[in-house]
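Researcher: We're teaching a course module on how sequence relates to structure. For the next exercise, students receive a sequence and then see the predicted structure as tokens, so they can try to spot secondary structure elements on their own. Here is the exercise chain.
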Amino acid sequence: FYVLLVAMCICVFSYTQPRIYIENIDVSKDSLYLFELEESPIAYSIEVRAALNKNNEQEGYSSQEWGIVWNYKTDKDFNYVKIVCGNLCYGDFLDQRYADVIIGNCQNGINSIIESKRLYKGVDTSTEYNSLLLEWNNNVAKFFVGNKELKFVTKLDIDNRKGLYGIYTNESLRVMSLVA
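Model: And here is the predicted structure for the students to work with:
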């Protein structure tokens, strides 16, 4: 029995990723907070809990956004998932706020959207905290988002072992925690 238990522990520890825990980061406007993982295990996750310092309401998309990048090589070559809020009918009685979770790819400076999901509930559309979670198993990524609890957004086949990881924003961002 003890030999089996030791063998199981060795197998579990050989596949675990050393974890990164970072709290209370301020990411400046138009910047990127990059980090790397020591190795690329078969399965791992990155979760960021953050809030924009400013998130203007206006017709259509707000000009403020934040997200997670991976496969980062240069500012013209990376994958991303971002949260962008907006209004359906700004100033109208029927106006409704939403948050789009947009998954995309930038190659040679050309941006392409892979998938986008619009959410009306379970996310904060102002300046309060949302969590964004990416889980990988081999080359399958699952995306989750939420302000109080994480909700599944989508699952995609995406390669994830080509570069650095990071948090980006085009507005100043308060990051409560980063766990990878």
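Model: If you want an answer key for the exercise: Residues 78 and 139 are 15 Å apart (CA to CA). Residues 2-14 form the longest helix (13 residues).
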